[in-house]
Amino acid sequence: KGALAIAARKGLKVEVAYAKDVSQVDVQELPAELRPSEETQLGFKYLKRPFEASLQVSEVAPKVTADVFTVARLSKDTLRLSTAINYKIRDAGVFRLMVRLGEGLKLLDLDGRDINTQQVKDNFLSVDLRSKAEGEYRLVLETEKTVKDAADVAIPEIEVLDVEREWGYLAVASVAGVKVEAKAFEGIRQINVRELAWGLFGSAAAAQEAAQARQQQQEKQQAEIQRAGEPVELAFRYLKHPFKLAVTASDVMPEVSVETRAVYNLTEKNLELVAELCYDIRKAGIFYLKTALAPELRLIAVEGENIDDWKRDEKEVTGIMKLFKN
């Protein structure tokens, strides 16, 4: 009598096709010396020889899921997508990653570990790796699309292929002076901006740190977008493809208020006016400041931050200040 253990390298699956005069047992019932590693997949016991057994060996199919975070930055002429794809790969590794880029998207940049080659053909991006990706893997894409009609901008999908499940978040940000509104959406749910999982947009190293470090990373990403003048205005979450999302981009009109402080100096020959104008400019920036002047006033000097040039418009009787920074 005796026992028999069947081991296979990682990535292979062994199954019993036929057995005679030998009984299959749980591998935990085998003697310890026959269970040297987790590679032991099958166990047998027999009472006499001869016995017969045949095995079927096949490749283990990897089980892959993807969590995606995309930030869409919209101006009136371009749409840029920054997408972080967070893979979870179990049971076996993969050498190739496939992503479908939405209509009109152009790949600008790609970042990931052990990338060997990349190719875009018919809107399909294929990424070949030098070594198998296993466990957690992160792929970051930077893509761009030309906006033809700012009143109806379709946000293209970025779909991860060859995965069991994909879900993700989509944040829509705008450049300074542009307002973004949702026009229509289907198959995707609008959420509060505070519900965005910014941790998916952070670095892979940050994702492995403690909860406090992950929170700091989230706050850092949000701060970077705010500093760039691209506040997130819309947030969405999707659980599958396809989905549709259309937004509109329009100019934001500035809201300007001013407080005037004036000092009049009267002499025997002249009346000198020194005026301080304190502007409060909100929602959008401006490049020009215009001030109405009485016809009999002569403009002598103008001082202020970021003034590039100034002049008096005799036709409109105004003083115009041109700023080099809005």
What does this 3D model show about the protein?
- The protein has 326 residues and is mainly beta.
- Helix content is 6%, strand content 58%.
- It has two helices and 22 strands.
- The strands form six sheets. Strands 6, 7, 8, 9, 10, 12, 13, 15 and 16 form a nine-stranded mixed beta sheet that branches. It has a three-stranded antiparallel beta sheet with strand order 1-4-3, with no helix packed on it. It has a three-stranded antiparallel beta sheet with strand order 11-17-14, with no helix packed on it.
- The radius of gyration is 33 Å and the shape is rod-shaped.
Structure classification: mainly beta
Helix content bin:
under 10%
Q: Strand share of the residues?
A: over 45%
Helix and strand sequence? EEEEEEEEEEEEEEEHHEEEEEEE
- Low-confidence blocks of residues: 203-211, 224-229
Main β-sheet description:
9 strands, mixed
Global shape: rod-shaped
Distance between the termini: 89 Å
| Mean model confidence by pLDDT | 84
| Total E-strand runs | 22
SS element count, helices: 2
| Rg for CA atoms | 33 Å
Please give a quick description of this structure:
With 326 residues, this protein is mainly beta. It has helices at residues 204-207, 211-227; strands spanning 2-7, 12-20, 23-25, 40-46, 52-59, 63-74, 78-101, 106-112, 115-121, 124-146, 153-154, 158-160, 165-174, 178-186, 189-191, 232-238, 244-251, 255-266, 271-282, 288-292, 307-313, 318-323.
